[in-house]
Amino acid sequence: MIKVGQRLIFRSMTNLLFPHQNLFHERFLIAVTKVKTAQTEKQNPNESKEIKDFIFLNVQKKKVKILFSEIVYVESQREYIRIVTTKKEYISKMSTHEIESLLPANLFKRIHRSFIVSVSKIESYTAEMVEVNGVPIPIGRGYRDIIENL
Question: pLDDT digit string (tens) for 109-130?
């Protein structure tokens, strides 16, 4: 029968003779821990996360709160974007890709390289253009399937 002291001597000798096994075991445990934490985060997302209905954007050196429900469409103007709301227009230094990632995908759709529209504000559409608040906005060739799937 092996006693506690003998077990420690056996382990240390095994680590000396087969150090790669010890490294493998440590790396394996680290990988398993990462997978477990990722799975628990997916299963239990933070309940404290609130659903936001607004966004803060930098407009002329100050942060302006813009409600998603007020946004009609977003237009790209080189390195700036123009956000047209029901009340006002705002210009912010941001790309359309950046603003698209900040807007909720279920409320806004990109229909052109330079335009993102609010789905709820679409009045009518054809294969080539969308009418939003009386403003015709072109539909890009690569984005036509998005409109068809509304």
Answer: 999 999 999 999 999 999 899 9
